[in-house]
């Protein structure tokens, strides 16, 4: 049955309930039976909505879209090893967050929501603001006060109310939680519909490889919205018998902020308390990811592991990618640095997929400073 389900106390709620967490305070997930009509999919426009029957939105009239997705999958050489790079920096707002925002705001429209709140280190705020504009829904975005100016301008231009919060990323999350008490929390980390958008990453990758799973997928991880979505997508395709395996997930964190990598390495049950240190990879600098337990489980169950990259490695990889013609934001370069590190230790032939998550034009000040 289609429903929202709590991973802690097991409470279930109908999908038409406009809630983003359980009464017990824990996270919700969407239980939903996806359908993959391969012949229909092949005939549709090249957007992420070609997998329409696998996305939990009831009525087509509620789909909030800019024809996003089905981004190119390009073969790029990393020290002579070919890696399929998904060009998710080419989304309408300049990051893969549009996958999640398109489905999340479609759900908000379906629920008849008039106003949403979201907090972000930048890109999720841009995406939710843009799709709120498309949906005609009022939107308030909370960001840390030191967020990149280009992202602030973008959020404002979409017509969202922008709230700059002093302090660290965590303070911004608390301010948004407070504001969300009286409205709908369109949170990319809390709201489970976001993951039913990011899962289309996996659908596209498998279709572009001829409906086959790659062996290995290397992804950047902060809150894990891409990693958890990808894991969900590959799992759904396997459940439907369309692919025969779920790829090994390699999760990349910046050494300066790597609570998940530390927990994985130390086989810890909970995330260690770590200080928020500055990193070039601002988009994944999350000290306490709320879906941390799910991320650790997904990486472990897939047979994967974590890779941490230093500031020097991120900077070097950014330079290397730009010299190849890919203008990506520094956060994306954490993932490509992880790819370089992974392929250096490679023992066998593997079909490897990774991603360019965000566009370099969003980080001009940082690019100038580097
Ligand atoms: C959001 C984001 C990520 C990582 O996403 P998480 O959900 O925090 O794991 C990576 N790169 C860019 C450019 C992003 O905006
Ligand atoms: Zn509960």
Question: Can you walk through the features of this model?
Answer:
This protein has 370 residues and is α/β, with parallel strands linked by helices. It folds into three domains: 1-31, no CATH class; 73-95 and 194-369, Rossmann fold; 97-192, Rossmann fold (3-Layer(aba) Sandwich), CATH 3.40.50. It is 36% helix and 17% strand. It has 13 helices and 13 strands. It has helices at residues 38-43, 97-110, 123-135, 149-157, 169-179, 195-198, 200-208, 225-239, 259-265, 292-301, 311-323, 330-344, 364-369; strands spanning 3-6, 12-13, 28-31, 73-78, 81-86, 115-119, 138-144, 161-165, 184-185, 216-220, 248-254, 305-309, 352-355. The strands form three sheets. A six-stranded mixed β-sheet has the order 4-5-13-10-11-12, sandwiched between helices. The chain has a four-stranded parallel β-sheet with strand order 8-7-6-9, sandwiched between helices. It has a three-stranded antiparallel β-sheet with strand order 2-1-3, with no helix packed on it. A hairpin with a 5-residue loop joins β1 and β2 (12-13). The longest helix has 15 residues, at 225-239. Zinc ion (ZN) binds at residues 6, 8-9, 11, 22, 24, 26.
